Amino acid sequence: MESAASYTEVNRSGVNDSAQNHETAQNYGLREGVLSPTQTLAQSISTIAPSTSPTITVPLVAVLAGNGTWLAYLIALAGILLIAGCISRFGRYSASPGSLYKYAGESLPPWAGTLAAWSLLLAYIGTGASVAGGFVSYAQMLALAATGHALLPGVVWAILVIGISTLLACRDVQFSTRLMLWIEIAAVLSILAVLVLVLARHGLHLDRAQTHLQNVTPGGVRLALVLALFSFVGFESASTLGHEVRNPLKTIPRAVMQSALLGGAFFLLATYTETLGFNTAGLSLGASDAPFHVLSLQAHVPALGLLIDVAVFISLFACTLACISAAARVMLLMAHNGIANKWLLRGTHTAQHAPVDAALVSGVLILLPVCGLVLCGVNGFDIYGWMGSMAVYGFLTAYALACIALPIFLLRRRELTPWMMLLPAAAVMAILLALVGTLYPVPPPPYSRLPYVYLAVLLAGLLSSWMTNRAIAAKR
Question: Class assignment of domain 30-470?
Fold first, then answer.
């Protein structure tokens, strides 16, 4: 019974490695094997939220990289594929709700596993807050366009999107992944329609300004790389679903690689086409807060501009839901391993087999910074940028720890090869270069302060885990 229900630790031959782990699915209370490969991929795709990058992130990248926007995304894709290779290799051996936290904790000292857990949790919370901020801006913009009024204050919009997402995250995981999948498909198809029409209008020729990197500087591309990376982060979130996935040791690694590749192809098409369209019109992509209104006019389908705004608005909701779902599952394993309060485990014993208590806490943690910033007069797009940058620090920390852990893990299994030494080394180097890009040259406030805010929150989390662990040990 235990081998059938366990989150899976499997060696290369496919036999359960019970010496490594005996935790069972009942320990988590989640439903086993209910998600198909498509639903698993939907979790990662929704966390990436590919439809939001062409409309919100790409213009921000274009401010720095100009005609080299596509190059910034190409370099980001190369780095992400290195990281995805490491994560997907781990996914062949282990499937649990903790994803990168579990991977790092298996091979590194306990403190490194706790560091990975908190950095990953903060990454999902930061991403959730970021996209919720974007949702507030889009909600007010669409309401203003439809009625001439914002209808509701920003705080109310934030409470609505995070509250509804949290309630859905407390339901059966199959329902939420299906919903996220269809929302993201509709949004991406709308954007693709405009991109294809713009390309068709310009004919089969390359944009020389982009291919020759006209007026592009290396420093601009380097700074833009950090924002480009934010478009990809969350590609690994399928790994948080663990044994809820059918045949997880095959399905999860594929979903991780597929989400990175599909996202990268979509972003490269979008960056090239958006830059082409704006260059042709003699406009600045970096100065536009509604790029697809301009592109849809070029494509002679102005109605698609509004449709894309609506699709992105809904996609931001789907990404909020995906982040809450992922954060709740990381929190669940943290509670199971004694570095978060045990009461977070209680909610899984419901008819929905969902981490209800952990999802509620995740929703509150996302809601607090968004409401606080809105009440301080910060607009939704600034919240998107600030909290997104915070999330990048968390993701890069967790990615680096997982990549460092991989060769140690394989060495203990006597499966380490030269390629499996080079791949993590290259991935860690890419992460370090990305981190340097966020710190030097020193960005303007408040971005210059965000690394310190991230470190302060991370240290508070680590202190909380240390106190929790000591309290558990004292009771034994």
Answer: mainly alpha
